[in-house]
Amino acid sequence: MSALALAQALIRQESVTPAGGPVFDVLERSLLPSGFVVDRFLAGEAPDGPVENLLATRAGRGHMLAFAGHLDVVPPGPGWSVDPWSGDVRDGLLVGRGAADMKAAVAAFAAAAARVSDAAAMLIVTGDEEGPATHGTPALIKRMADRGLRPDWCIVGEPTCTDRLGDMMKLGRRGSVNVWITVPGRQGHVAYPHLADNPIGPLVRALAELDALVLDTGTPWFQPSNLEITDLDVGNPATNVIPPAARARLSIRFNDRHDGEDLARRVTAIVRRHAPAAQVTARVSGEAFLTEPGALSDMVSDAVFEVTGLTPEASTTGGTSDARFLSRLCPTIEFGLVNATMHQADEAVAAADVEALAQVYAAMLRRSAVSLVADAE
Ligand SMILES: [Zn+2]
């Protein structure tokens, strides 16, 4: 099976989040001849859904190696020099929405699994990664639990490389929590402060304390967690009016020393100490995760080196990914194509890299097939 031809066929099916239908038909047709049992189901309701998810399983030798990915893409947006859904190869580049993020990686794994036909393998593929992601990978994980399926290792096919295929894998990602703060006051005349209640002072004192927080000093695998005040808004056009309310927003990117809900409680407590009536709303958009270096990272590194001659740097940079959910099931590492053009106009990857990635995934499957399950971390 040609990984490149399958990647082109996937790109030719428009599949902006929430995705389902034809793009999954293409993937399913490619998996059936390789011995996979394919389970497709819809999850969620409008406006975020319904979204389609696909779970493909094949019994075989060694560890159950899962590949996790998504077939939805972000909207093309303006500025393309070609049809974003043509899937054409131009000057050695596969150009199209989803080329890097991440239809070509899904195609590469399907092609690899067809070649290493005796290896135990699983595909966990959603149509809801780029959107709210509530009906995507979490729904797939629930489906797996209901069916008693659990992989030993998981590879997430997000584009992790920076300059050349093989230069980076991700062992973890930081978590993210956003917080909205509203401090109520009582509007009034600046000259009659005893008749009013100015909300700005308490908010500024709370923000000063939050801004001075040192959450940690980093870990061997992560940079220090950071809290950034991202907005401060009173919206008061008058010089002689004490405003009725003051608002602020902040965002925390945190490493595996922290838990999103704990951080939200800590921020709320600080704000309430300065402004007891403040409304504080927090949303955890992802917890941090880390797969400690071990058997899986060694296996990935060896497979990448065999094909590309590069030893991938182990990194934890970047935003959140669905690996945050999967890492609760089993050791999880991300490895995929070069990410330079993801979400951009004229998104593209080297056509040769698509085949090379299929060879890397095949090398992973061969190694996984001879692993004893007792070796699983
Ligand atoms: Zn992606």
Report what the structure shows.
A hairpin with a 2-residue loop joins strand 4 (89-90) and strand 5. Strands 1-2-6-3-7-18 form a 6-stranded mixed sheet, sandwiched between helices. The chain is an alpha+beta fold. The protein has helices at 3-11, 22-31, 99-115, 137-146, 200-211, 260-274, 295-308, 323-326, 351-369, and strands at residues 37-43, 51-58, 61-70, 89-90, 93-95, 119-126, 153-156, 168-170, 172-173, 175-184, 188-189, 226-233, 241-242, 245-254, 279-286, 289-290, 313-315, 332-334, 348-350. Helix 1 runs antiparallel to helix 2 and helix 7 (295-308) packs across helix 9. 29% of the residues lie in helices and 26% in strands. The chain is elongated, with a radius of gyration of 24 Å. The structure holds zinc ion.
Bound molecules: zinc ion
Rg, Å, rounded = 24 Å
Shape: elongated
Q: Hey, roughly how much beta strand do the residues contain? A: 25-35%
- The topology string of helices and strands comes to HHEEEEEHEHEEEEEHEEEHEEHEHEEH
Give the total of beta strands. 19
Q: State the secondary-structure class.
A: alpha+beta
Uncertain parts: none
Strand arrangement within the widest β-sheet reads 1-2-6-3-7-18
* Alpha carbon gap, first and last residue: 32 Å
Q: Helix content range of the residues, please?
A: 25-40%
Rounded mean pLDDT score: 95
Largest pleated sheet:
6 strands, mixed
Number of helices: 9
